[in-house]
Amino acid sequence: VLGSEVLTLWREIIDKRLEQLLPKEDGGMPQLKSLYQAMRYACLNPGKRLRPTLCLLCAEAVGGEALAAIEVACAVEMIHCFSLIHDDLPALDNDDLRRGLPSVHKKFGEAVAVLSGDALIGLAFEVLSRAKGKPERVLECLRRLTEAIGVDGLVGGETLDILSEGEVPNREVVQFIHSRKTGALFAASCAAGAAIGGGSAGDVQSLHQYGDELGLAFQITDDLLNQSSSENQLGKSAGSDLAREKMTYPAAFGEDVARDMAMEAVQRAQQYALHVPKMQSELASLALFAVERLS
Ligand code: GRG
After folding, report:
1. Ligand 1 centre from 82 Cα, in Å?
2. Torsion-angle region of residue 94: left (phi > 0), alpha (psi -120 to 50) or beta?
3. Which residue puts its alpha carbon closest to atom 15 of ligand 1?
4. What residue's CA is closest to ligand 1, atom 26?
5. Distances (CA, A) of 220 to 84, 214, 279, 293
6. 225-245: pLDDT as tens digits
């Protein structure tokens, strides 16, 4: 089974639950309609849904039911969409295009964009708190996801990414940035899925490592695509890393070595996938998808 087929299989279920969990456009207070619209726009536009799919698969991989992880998966996607809204803001990467459409601040203005992101992260944790499962498992998901977004995760990685613009490419720094701004959320999505699925400590750890390696392969590929692909193909800006002198894998290691490193990370991810009881081939396909994707 191809990675893209695994994604197609789950996307409708994920989108349907997200749709139910997000505020209705015409619900609540009429004056807040643009806030509700911005939250829905950010979450329901056509992204790949890779992180929530991994979360569901990892629950199944450890012997649980995929759907038991749906709240955790939706929380993960809300966190991810929040990070995209903020990443695109003028103060950060200043990107006008996302998922083939105007980015949230272009469509709704900066204030509503910032605030819709804030609302999404709150909603993510509210949804997570309602996840079905033993309280200690829900708490483990909470810990893993909050760790993944904090100073040792997305925020730390993104901050260094921004502060390193224009600096001479440095291999250690680029590894630090990538493992945090991208790897941490992939790892936490997988580990949280495994945790809520009732996995043993060893299985949860294997899937954390799997997600970490997949995330590395995914971000190196993102760097390579930014360099070689087009805005049309990506649905987001292309060539922007060079223009902003970003600290990327191709900048620090060269394109060929970066490509090899991405493939090596896929292989390591696939090795970790062999440690869990089920869904090994689906997990292996999704790891390969991280490098073979065109957008
Ligand atoms: C979460 C508290 C908190 C802060 C976030 C803004 C920020 C701090 C971090 C930015 C992280 C970021 C945007 C990293 C890039 C990761 C990446 C390659 C995103 C693209 O992911 P895809 O291709 O997107 O899976 P789709 O559109 O398919 O969902």
Report:
1. 8
2. left
3. 182
4. 47
5. 17, 10, 25, 12
6. 999 999 999 999 999 999 999
Centroid of ligand 1 to alpha carbon of 255 (angstroms)? 22
Which contacts of 288-291 are long-range, i.e. CB under 8 A and separated by 24 or more positions?
288/3, 289/2, 289/3, 289/4, 289/6, 289/7, 289/50, 290/3, 290/50, 290/214, 290/215, 290/217, 290/218, 290/221, 290/262, 290/266, 291/217, 291/218, 291/220, 291/221, 291/262, 291/263, 291/266
* 87 Cα: distance to centroid of ligand 1 (angstroms): 7
Residue 29: burial class (beta carbons within 10 Å; 0-12, 13-18, 19+): exposed
Determine the atom of ligand 1 nearest the C-alpha atom of 48.
28
Rg of the chain over Cα atoms, rounded to whole angstroms, equals: 18
Q: Take residue 161 and report the two structure tokens written for it.
A: 């990414």
H-run or E-run covering 101: strand 101-102
From 18, 84, 116, mutation site for ligand 1 pocket: most ligand atoms within 8 A of C-beta = 84
245-293: pLDDT as tens digits:
999 999 999 999 999 999 999 999 999 999 999 999 999 999 999 999 9
Total-model pTM: 0.98
- Ligand 1 centroid vs 80 CA: distance in angstroms? 5
Instruction: List the residue whose alpha carbon is closest to atom 5 of ligand 1.
Output: 83
Tell me the CA end-to-end span of the chain in Å, nearest whole number.
19
| Closest C-alpha to 154, from 241, 70, 85 | 85
